[in-house]
Specification:
Layout (H helix, E strand, L loop, with lengths): L1 E2 L2 E2 L23 E2 L5 E2 L4 H28 L5 H15 L4 H15 L9
Antiparallel strand pairs: 1-2, 3-4
Helix pairs in contact: 1-2, 1-3, 2-3
């Protein structure tokens, strides 16, 4: 997915936006695309906004993770990233899938082992 010179990676999570519609009957919230189809996927602009946010956080968190690793030398790379992930989830800025992607990207930027969340 491209917008200008920014490319959203294929592994970036695509999540339907949350929506609420009042009434007693079940409802399905969709948007109409330019080609006349209906979808519950976010707009390309929204995807790029979310991607840029997560990429920026990954860049910032790479420095934070290095500092944490220096301070807590007994922590492994995976444990350090797990602690950063837990803190990021507590902030509530991102969905869980976006948090997972951001921490994987942070590990990639640092050249650390591929990180997977602990259930």
């Amino acid at each position: 997915m491209n917008q200008g010179d920014i490319r959203v990676p294929d592994d970036f999570p695509v999540e339907a936006p949350l929506a609420s519609v009042c009434g007693v009957q079940p409802k399905l919230v969709l948007r109409r695309t330019e080609d006349g189809r209906y979808t519950n996927e976010p707009t390309p602009q929204r995807m790029h906004e979310r991607y840029r946010l997560c990429e920026d956080l990954a860049q910032q968190l790479s420095g934070y993770a290095l500092k944490a690793r220096d301070e807590f030398r007994q922590w492994s790379q995976a444990h350090t990233l797990q602690q950063v992930h837990a803190g990021l989830l507590r902030k509530g800025w991102l969905s869980r899938a976006e948090c997972d992607w951001t921490i994987r990207r942070t590990a990639d930027l640092l050249g650390w082992e591929r990180w997977e969340p602990v259930p």
